[in-house]
Inverse folding.
């Protein structure tokens, strides 16, 4: 029993393609000349499955060949293919199936050179879901990437699982991504497992206040027959606050950042476990449209070196309006800075600085600069 193409795909089928050929000759002052013949061909098609609301499909196939002639003759051939099917693409739960492949080969006429062939494959599925009520969205992705190589190359297979969610409710925003990745390398026997988790929460009740918090976690386990096993782990939490006074030209920012890194090499005494704490804050006051003052301070602590550093900064900046000199404008600004730093390896530092800058600019219509 055989099914014809028309029995599976109904409706109009869009088909397109392209053909091209090129010849290049390079003659350097020193060295051999190079001649290249380049040929490419591509065809693509797409339509819908059964009914337009049910699904859509698309695909393309390409061929490229480059013949290079110098002292030797090399032929590089690449064949690519891509295809995807989108089911229920107009619904709240669209499903996408995709696949792609690429074959690449390099052949030379010399006996000393090594011919190489590569084949890359990628295929997977993406599922989206959006509830009827609320402002939420969920995305799940599963895919495999496979590389096969000959002529001295190494093969590699990577499996990926990713889950992403975004939610909004009242004054809150939440987004998170969970990623699991498994990589196997055939030549070295290496296996790499990676886990990544990222989460973000935003709270913005008014235009004058916002609080944003981000959590990141990354874990990697490397196993190999040729080298010692290694595990690395990093956790980070960072929170940023912004506030602006509704009655006065006063605003403030504050940031707390904690990072922990762990590195463990099997059979070694070089295991590391380091935590870094960072706290920064600042206040800005606008005395006028031209004059602003800033006060900033920061604190950093490193558990690995037991070192603590701090800084305090006071600055003033004055930037008046432009001065018109006919159709030319003169701008200038000035500022002063006082800074204190403690805990540095070279000792405590105190800095006193001043800045002055100025310039001329002219604005002209674009058409007046173009002469035909």
């Amino acid at each position: 029993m055989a099914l014809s193409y028309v029995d599976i795909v109904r409706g109009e089928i869009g088909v397109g393609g392209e053909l091209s050929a090129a010849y290049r000759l390079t003659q350097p002052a020193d060295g051999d000349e190079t001649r290249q013949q380049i040929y490419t061909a591509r065809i693509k098609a797409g339509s819908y499955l059964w009914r337009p609301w049910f699904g859509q499909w698309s695909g393309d196939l390409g061929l490229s060949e480059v013949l290079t002639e110098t002292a030797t003759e090399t032929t590089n051939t690449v064949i690519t293919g891509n295809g995807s099917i989108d089911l229920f693409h107009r619904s709240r739960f669209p499903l996408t199936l995709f696949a792609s492949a690429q074959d690449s080969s390099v052949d030379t006429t010399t006996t000393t050179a090594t011919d190489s062939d590569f084949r890359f494959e990628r295929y997977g599925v993406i599922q989206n879901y959006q509830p009827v009520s609320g402002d939420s969205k969920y995305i799940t992705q599963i895919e495999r990437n496979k590389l096969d190589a000959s002529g001295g190359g190494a093969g590699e297979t990577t499996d990926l699982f990713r889950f992403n969610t975004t939610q909004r409710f009242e004054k809150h925003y939440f987004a998170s991504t969970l990623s699991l990745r498994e990589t196997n390398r055939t030549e070295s026997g290496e296996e790499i497992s990676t886990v990544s988790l990222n989460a973000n929460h935003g709270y913005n009740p008014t235009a004058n206040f916002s609080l944003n918090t981000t959590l990141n976690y990354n874990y990697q386990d490397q196993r190999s027959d040729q080298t010692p096993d290694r595990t690395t782990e990093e956790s980070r939490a960072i929170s940023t606050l912004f506030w602006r006074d509704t009655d006065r030209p006063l605003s403030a920012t504050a940031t707390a950042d904690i990072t922990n890194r762990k590195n463990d090499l099997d059979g070694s005494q070089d295991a590391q476990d380091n935590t870094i704490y960072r706290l920064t804050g600042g206040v800005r006051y606008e005395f006028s449209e031209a004059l602003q003052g800033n006060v900033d301070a920061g604190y950093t602590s490193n558990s690995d070196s037991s070192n603590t550093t701090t800084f305090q900064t006071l600055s003033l900046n004055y930037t008046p309006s432009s001065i018109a000199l006919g159709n030319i404008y003169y701008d200038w600004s000035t500022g002063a800075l006082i800074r204190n730093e403690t805990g540095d390896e070279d000792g405590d530092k105190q800095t006193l600085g001043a800045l002055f800058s100025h310039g001329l600019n002219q604005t002209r219509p674009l058409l007046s600069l173009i002469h035909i």
Summary: The helical segments are 5-8. The CA atoms of residues 146 and 223 lie 19 Å apart.
